[in-house]
Amino acid sequence: MTVFGAGGIGLYFAAVLGAAGHEVTVVGRESTVAAAGRAPLVLTRGGERLEVPGVAAVSAVSEIAEPPDLAVVSVKAWQVREAAAALAPVLGPRTVVLPLQNGVEASGELVEALGPGGVLGASCVVIAQRTEPWAVTCLGPDATLEIGPATADFDAALDPVVAALTEAGVGITRSEDISATLWRKLMLISSYGGVGALSRQPVGVTASCPQTRELVRAAMIEVLRVARARDVRLAEADVDRMMKVFEGFSPDTTSSMQRDLLAGRPSELEYQNGAVVRFGRETGVPTPIHETVYASQLPGELAARRESA
């Protein structure tokens, strides 16, 4: 199995798959490869530290000898096309490709680059933070995944991949409508993360303050209206459902986009609030809250990208 991307999510999936006895190779930066050469991958969860030996790390996909059964794409949303181009030479005709990005566009980009045969759509819920180049901490419960073929042309063997992820402790649900699943996740992450970025506060504050809690709900309703205008089958009950998820998060929870913006790092702003704004304009649906989040955070985002470049 191959994990492309050694951030928190990538290292988490590498660790749980490796701990379940699967052969895992992580594609990461030189610092990741160097750290992997010195010690086992470390996963901390529930206050317990687990060393996972045997997980390999490489800096180039060309170092992978055999096509993997599963390729986990765990880079940030704006890096998906680059990841697809890198992975294409080593994927086999039966490789299942699992994108773990927030937003609704990653699976379509992978289908465009790799073909539809093995690409899934997926909504992943886990809070995993990389603490060192070869160490990750899971804050809260283990990951849950809601998955489904990105297109009707999916023809890879999915059952063995589901079994492997289940053995690793990942909760799996098969979606009957992956488009609705992805938009439901976008409704959640862009709304609470966007309001968190505006207020610079964690969920414990934004969920308990009536004004910010209602702002999150109103932002979710904007996403609902945009999704419906795009013929995505979401209902008002989905807003209630996602609000319960938001309110059930640990009080210290922040979204990855919120953390990146606060730290001055490139973020997924364009693929979360920016996507809601973009799709809203295409369909003629007003999105004033997401417009405010996007416009207010864009200067910092552009500065972070210039600094990164």
Outline the secondary-structure elements.
Elements: E1 2-4, H1 8-19, E2 25-27, H2 30-36, E3 41-45, E4 48-52, E5 56-58, E6 70-73, H3 80-87, E7 96-99, H4 106-114, E8 120-125, E9 128-132, E10 135-138, E11 144-149, H5 159-167, E12 171-174, H6 178-199, H7 203-206, H8 210-229, H9 236-248, H10 256-263, H11 273-283, H12 288-308
Parallel strand pairs: 1-2, 1-6, 2-5, 3-10, 6-7, 11-12
Antiparallel strand pairs: 3-4, 8-11, 9-10
Overview of the structural elements:
By secondary structure, the protein is α/β, with parallel strands linked by helices. The protein has 2 domains: 2-175, Rossmann fold (3-Layer(aba) Sandwich), CATH 3.40.50; 180-308, Orthogonal Bundle (N-(1-d-carboxylethyl)-l-norvaline Dehydrogenase, domain 2). 47% of the residues lie in helices and 17% in strands. It has 12 helices and 12 strands. The chain has helices at 8-19, 30-36, 80-87, 106-114, 159-167, 178-199, 203-206, 210-229, 236-248, 256-263, 273-283, 288-308; strands at 2-4, 25-27, 41-45, 48-52, 56-58, 70-73, 96-99, 120-125, 128-132, 135-138, 144-149, 171-174. Strands 5-2-1-6-7 form a 5-stranded parallel β-sheet, sandwiched between helices. It has a 4-stranded mixed β-sheet with strand order 4-3-10-9, with helices on one face. Helix 3 (80-87) runs parallel beside helix 4 (106-114) and helix 6 crosses helix 12. The longest helix is centred in the middle third of the chain and has 22 residues, at 178-199. The mean pLDDT is 95.
